[in-house]
Every structure is written in structure tokens, then in C-alpha cells.
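I would like you to sit down with the record closing this message with an eye to the fold:
=====
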Amino acid sequence: YRKFFPDFIFWMCREQKYRIVLVDPKGAEHTNAEHKIDGYKKLFENAAAAREFAYQAPHGKKWKVSLRLFMYNPQSNAPEKYSRYWTDSPAAVFCDK
């Protein structure tokens, strides 16, 4: 995971929630995509669900922070094990689900 460098990082904020979205455009033939997904899962998921982190700013405001990973490719043939990380929809990257 020390070599985990997504191509795009989007920070979205609504009320007191931060949503950080990591997007990496990939072809399914790129085998390092699976290594990135495995590293992401190890760092940022519990029981196949995104972990939520608490952050308290120096001025006292409390935030909830969650992360999502998307491998973007309109013609992906990702293995079933990793299919939920692949999308061909830009809208999926920015929705709250």
C-alpha cells in the first residue's frame, strides 16, 4: 500500500461528512488494479464495507470521513471478486451511495 497512488482524488463535503473518492482509470488487463484494490480493502474497509473515520478539527468541529475506491473503465471485464470497485459511470463516482 505504500505504492498506492490513485490518479484522481476527489474530496466532497456535505454538512459534517467528508467523502473521499479515489479514482483510477484502468483497463481490466492491468493486473496491478487487483493489488490496488487489495491494499485499499486492507486499509479502508471492515467486513467488505467502507470504514468511517472520526476527525476533530483543531477548532473543535467534528467530522465523519469515509473513503471509496473506483476503478474506472467503460469496458471492464473485472473478476467477480473485484466487480464492485469497477464502474463505467462517472455519476457513480459522485453519488453518496
Observations:
- The longest helix spans residues 32-44.
- Strands lie at 8-14, 17-25, 45-46, 49-50, 52-56, 62-72, 86-87.
- Residues 6 and 19 are 15 Å apart (CA to CA).
- The helical segments are 32-44, 90-94.
